[in-house]
Amino acid sequence: MNWTWFYRMGSPLWFYQSTSRWLPLLSLVTLALLVAGLAWGLGFAPEDAKQGNSFRIIYLHVPASFLALAGYFLMATAGAIGLIWKMKLSYIVMKCAAPIGAALTFLALFTGAVWGKPTWGSYWVWDARITSMLILLFLYFGVLALQYAFHSKEAGNKASAVLALVGTVNIPIIYKSVDWWFTLHQPSTIKLTSAPSMHSDMFQPLLVMILAFYFFYALALILAVRVEILKRESKTTWVRELVEQAGRQKMGAKR
Amino acid sequence: MNFQFQDLSEMLLMGGHGVYVWAAVLVSLGTLVWLVVSPILQHKQTLKKIGLNLTREELRNQNGNKDI
Amino acid sequence: MPESNRGFSAYVKRDLLLAYRRRGEVASPIIFFVMVATLIPLGITPEADSLKELAPGIIWVMALLATLLSAEGLFVSDYKDGSLEQLLISPNLLVMPIFGKVTAHWITTGLPLTLASPLIGLMLSLPSVAYLPMMAGLALGTGCLSFLAAIGAALTVSLQKGSLLLTLIVMPLYMPIIIFGSAVMQYSIDGMAWSGPLAILGAMLTAAIALCPLAIAAVLRLITIN
Predict the structure, then answer these.
(1) Inside any domain, residue A242
(2) ipTM of this predicted complex?
(3) Distance to chain A for C24, nearest Cα, Å
(4) How far off is chain A from C20, nearest CA to CA, in Å?
(5) pTM for the structure as a whole
(6) Is B53 a domain residue?
């Protein structure tokens, strides 16, 4: 099987050029999905029988949680690819995925807390999902801290990649343990976070928002990776030409 | 599918939960915007910085590698 | 015979000897463990009933912190004087010496903790029915803690201020162990069968023994051969 497509993807130049073409469309689609999903969820989805209007926070909380977790796996996978195939671009993706994922995890925690107050009376409840999200945030912090602790970029990349992989192996264990711990201490299993059985009128905007967040993640990641590519490849000819072109455009615009 | 609220002010109130819902919305949008705007700004800055380095190099080469 | 276990017992002996030479330093986590257990009643309440409720959690958090404190130096001195590199370029398997070092670490940290725990239990008014489960859980759990801490130690071996980073990295991985470790004690206090959580701890330890040395070996290779 011809693997050149795979190795071509590892070229920063190829990545930069292809994303330059698709970025405008991606931004448009992301914006459209976010606006549509949010408007639908906030304004048109029916009110929840028990929770009233505060349940609308779900349209932000659930997508953020999804992407926080998916983002971690993406980060770990990028690290693994970097370790196995020694692909620079893969390490760059891993490095850029970390702060985005951490921000989304924080967002999931914040929206969860704000949702908790009107619904169950307090900002923080040690329920299984929220606790697992908190531990996920710590896992992200670990990877971020490790990346910036090394002088040599190579060593930092490798160490973060291994840590991300170790974290990945542990995530199912952590989630299961916390789940078990929570049911142990709450014998009257109150399903605090979203029950899977939701009316389709409430569920559809949620799907839109989840899709919107996936697109958003891709957008944010691509933008960050492009910047990192520029920084690392600053000495190459294609970057120089790009900079000169940008400079000439600015001069042209000024006149 | 119909609009759930009578008018805009009712939507803001969200049946008493307005503070929470809109706080969540604002923080979320703020985070999302920052995650997109920050790399865009950095992109411009990086291009500028590389441009400066290039001009510095050219000047250095013109002067025959003497210290500027 | 030393030959047949490919360096395991050799490294256990070596690290134990090295630890004995700095025995003051090595004893400090245990002393820390005991001292902080004294602080808790001072900080919260001396009432036996409240302490009883908190005891399992306190003991486990203390054990965790003590293990982390002593884990920083696991690979550092070998890294600094070059014996780690010698180990890496030697033709033998790397996992067995690593397994030996971690075992030695457990013997100098986890094992004394387990043996000292009845004393702490006494100070925290732990019900007598929980003593055996506590020791069993600690014995298995601190083994896991040592292996996970070793991963953190390997990742931060070349860093200057590695200790805080080590704690940050390893903490999330410790959460399942704390959950099940204190569950063993809690089950026995509540009169339920505590062999369940204990078995899970045992499974975690088995997985740790099998997988962690591989991860540690990979990390050490990646970081030192740069």
Answers:
(1) yes
(2) 0.85
(3) 30
(4) 31
(5) 0.88
(6) yes
